[in-house]
Write a structure and sequence with these properties.
Elements lengths: L4 E6 L10 H4 L4 E7 L3 H11 L3 E2 L3 H6 L3 E6 L6 H10 L3 E5 L6 H13 L4 E4 L6 H11 L6 E10 L33 H4 L4 H4 L3 H18 L2 E8 L2 E4 L2 E3 L3 E7 L5 E8 L12 E9 L2 E5 L13 E5 L2 E5 L7 H16 L8 H20 L3 E2 L14 H9 L1
Parallel strand pairs: 1-2, 1-4, 2-3, 4-5, 5-6, 7-12
Antiparallel strand pairs: 7-13, 8-11, 8-17, 9-10, 11-12, 13-14, 14-15, 15-16
Helix pairs in contact: 4-5, 5-11, 9-11
The site of nicotinamide-adenine-dinucleotide (NAD) has 24 residues, from helix 7.
């Protein structure tokens, strides 16, 4: 009998690929099985990664006494329901971000985990990214003095140009180097279709979905937020399908004179080098004595610039020593799930903290909708708006 704790991945879509490495290098845990409602996806995934078992239903996973925990990697409208089911079956749960669709769902998930004495982890990998952790430690050690401000930039090259070979990206005004290699992940269109329907995703692909990572970083760095003010526009991607940008989100932390600003743009002709999503992130933290930059996470826009850079006392110092592939953040995040179970402690992003991150995100979206400042203490759940474009309905009806 193996002494390894057994885990099962539920949902073998795009992101599942990055959930394997964190088990491969452990001798106390094993990726034992997979389940996907599309059986062919589960079978192919199990074969590719050498995973022994393919289940036929979620119920079959939950009734398997050998299974210690599940990783829920499915569309957002299923997070709450499947998390509760797993908790009630006595399984530890790691659920991908965003935690759920609204705060009421978060409460029910937290309650289910408590009642059944299992761990509830929200899998948000950015806060486990080694260069980010290095930068955070430098801030905590006072390397740049008292913190005065935080700026964050998210820039993608639009949903439609995600995987295009560079030779097909044609800048209108300047010549393009034809030799640029293909960049970015292959993404099945089904991975986008549920995201573009608010009733399945809970909100826009940039501010709500991907944004959960960023809200999580901002919360992880400096804690509770008092108020938020956002402007969130819409830009067509294909036909009537839009993404929620350009957008600017600003916020003030609670109990301190510290403000943050995050801006989101899409540059559909930009070549962004990445093994994963073609989405670039840059962070700048200003202190009373210096400045820190985090220059990458998902993509590598500037390969010649170190992942962490510090300006202080007239000198620029580059920090190259941390592993900086995006995969590393997933590996560490998985380890945290296993360790939290082994050590009987809360995971880094517990249900309670993840709910506060969610409140920050939803308050920002509410601010964008209303065009006014939203205080987080005043934020209450609203009915999730329905957004089904004509193209979306056509596509879904054909399936
Ligand atoms: N951490 C990150 O950086 C990151 C990146 C991408 C996605 N995500 C998150 O991961 C989750 C999954 O996203 P994705 O991009 O892999 O989506 P995807 O659409 O590529 O994959 C989802 C999979 O779930 C399966 N599925 C749907 N309903 C199911 C059900 N009832 N039971 C079992 N399987 C079911 C689908 O068949 C599909 O294979 C989402 O929460 C998303 O926000 C996180």
């Amino acid at each position: 009998m193996s002494h390894k704790k057994k885990f099962v991945i539920v949902g073998c879509g795009r992101i599942a690929t990055l959930h394997v490495a964190g088990y491969k290098d452990r001798d106390d845990a094993q990726l034992y099985g997979v389940y996907d409602k599309k059986k062919s996806a589960a079978t192919a995934f199990a074969k590719e990664h050498g995973i022994p078992k393919v289940y036929d239903s979620f119920e079959e996973v939950l009734s398997d006494k050998d299974v210690c925990g599940v990783e829920i990697l499915v569309p957002h409208h299923l997070h709450c329901q499947m998390t509760i089911q797993a908790c009630e079956a006595g399984k530890h749960v790691s659920v991908q971000k965003p935690m759920a669709m609204n705060l009421e769902e978060c409460d029910r998930m937290i309650e289910a985990a408590k009642k059944n004495h299992v761990k509830l982890k929200v899998f948000e990998n950015f806060i486990h990214y080694p260069p980010y952790k290095h930068m955070k430690k430098m801030i905590q050690d006072g390397e740049i003095g008292e913190i005065k401000g935080i700026r964050y930039k998210m820039n993608n090259c639009s949903l439609k140009s995600e995987n295009l070979p560079a030779s097909k990206i044609r800048a209108k005004s300047v010549a393009v180097e034809d030799e640029l290699p293909q960049t970015g992940w292959k993404i099945d269109p089904t991975s986008w279709t549920w995201r573009l329907n608010d009733t399945l995703s809970g909100g826009g692909p940039l501010v709500f979905d991907d944004g959960y990572h960023k809200f999580s970083l901002f919360y992880d760095l400096f804690g509770k937020v008092e108020k938020v003010n956002a402007m969130i526009d819409e830009t067509p991607v294909v036909g009537a399908i839009t993404q929620d940008c350009p957008a600017v989100v600003t916020w003030k932390y609670a109990d301190k004179k510290l403000y943050g600003i995050w801006d989101i743009t899409s540059s559909d002709e930009m070549y962004i080098q990445s093994k994963y999503y073609t989405c670039d992130e840059r962070m700048e933290i200003t202190g009373s004595r210096g400045v820190l930059w985090l220059t990458r996470c998902t993509a590598v826009l500037m390969p010649d610039v170190a992942p962490v850079v510090m300006y202080r006392d007239g000198k620029v110092t580059e920090f190259w020593e941390d592993p900086s592939d995006w995969q590393e953040s997933f590996r560490n995040c998985t380890h945290d799930f296993i360790d939290a179970i082994n050590e009987d402690r809360e995971p880094v992003l517990s249900g309670e903290t993840a709910k506060e991150v969610m409140r920050f995100a939803l308050a920002a979206i509410e601010s964008g909708r209303k065009g006014e400042t939203v205080y987080l203490t005043n934020y209450a759940d609203k009915q999730v708006p329905k957004k089904q474009s004509f193209l979306y309905s056509l596509f879904m009806n054909k399936k």
